[in-house]
Design a protein that fits this description.
The protein is 39% helix and 17% strand. It is of the alpha+beta class and 284 residues long. β7 and β8 form a beta hairpin. α3 crosses α8.
């Protein structure tokens, strides 16, 4: 049985949950190790660990989970204990999805995005995967997405030798054109890393989300990521727009938003993501 951090053992004992009797590795996850724990008291918990976690990574995730817990939004696991190398969460015990799961999910995400801020950013910088994600408060969404999303990642990739100077210049030209390509949008509360692996169910089969990189940003950017690694079913998007209408043509803008995540994957996982990055830069 893999080692349980001492503060977690102490917390379980002090709250009368007893020793950990069993643990099961969670599927997925490239950055941290996830495990389902079962205790003497019959309670289950979810434990994320990473001995090499960047500074305050789990604390920032816990803050994101707390911020995203809004009325009518997707279910999130409750944060129970956080440390430098671990995060102990409620185990949602995912069940088979309910028949109207995707309709519920679309409406719940729309409700989340209806939470807005006068500025773009977040209370703290956080992480997208293990890459730092800067979140200074900025009034202008075009400047925020240009400087703190696209160009932050592009400059990092160029420093690591993953993009050429010509590629970086192309990213800068695209960033300068954002006001011509993207409609005005409010700063909506976003999950921030909403790909299919982070969309799960709870014990009732209802929509739930995990592993956020929360901030206030463009809602269209969140929807774009739901198509990046396997699009959600069409009924999800139909339910979303019934609750929160979008500016026509939003799907044609998805590749611009997804460039941020593709650049991040380039930085995290290497040159296999370069062709997609290059294609988007070339298109614009």
């Amino acid at each position: 049985m893999a080692r349980i951090p001492d503060p977690v053992r102490t917390w379980l004992a002090e709250n009368s949950f007893g020793e950990v009797l069993g643990q099961r590795a969670a599927s997925g996850g490239c950055i941290n190790q996830g495990r389902h724990l079962e205790t003497q008291a019959g309670r289950r918990f979810f434990l994320k660990t990473n001995p090499a976690a960047p500074a305050q990574m789990f604390e920032r995730e816990a803050e994101g989970l707390a911020a995203l817990a809004v009325p009518g939004g997707p279910r999130l696991p409750a944060v129970l204990l956080v440390g430098d190398e671990f995060l102990l969460l409620e185990d949602l015990q995912p069940a088979r999805a309910c028949p109207d799961y995707w309709e519920r999910f679309g409406a719940a995400l729309a409700n989340l995005h209806l939470q807005t801020s006068p500025c773009f950013g977040f209370t703290h910088d956080n992480y997208i995967g293990s890459t730092p994600q800067p979140n200074p408060w900025v009034e202008d969404g075009f400047s925020f997405f240009a400087e703190h999303r696209l160009l932050f990642q592009a400059r990092l990739a160029q420093r690591q030798g993953l993009l050429s100077l010509a590629d970086l210049n192309a990213a800068e030209r695209l960033a300068a054109r954002l006001p011509d390509l993207i409609p005005m949008q409010p700063a909506s509360l976003l999950h921030g890393d909403l790909w299919s692996g982070n969309a799960i169910t709870d014990e009732q089969g209802c929509p739930a989300v995990i592993d956020p990189a929360a901030y206030f940003g463009w809602a269209e950017a969140e929807l774009a990521m739901t198509t990046l690694f396997g699009a959600f079913p069409e009924r999800f998007y139909q339910a979303y727009v019934q609750q929160r209408p979008l500016t026509p043509g939003y799907r044609q803008r998805f590749s611009i938003y997804n460039l941020y995540h593709l650049l991040n994957h380039l930085n995290l996982f290497g040159s296999g993501y370069y062709p997609e990055v290059s294609a988007i830069l070339g298109r614009f």
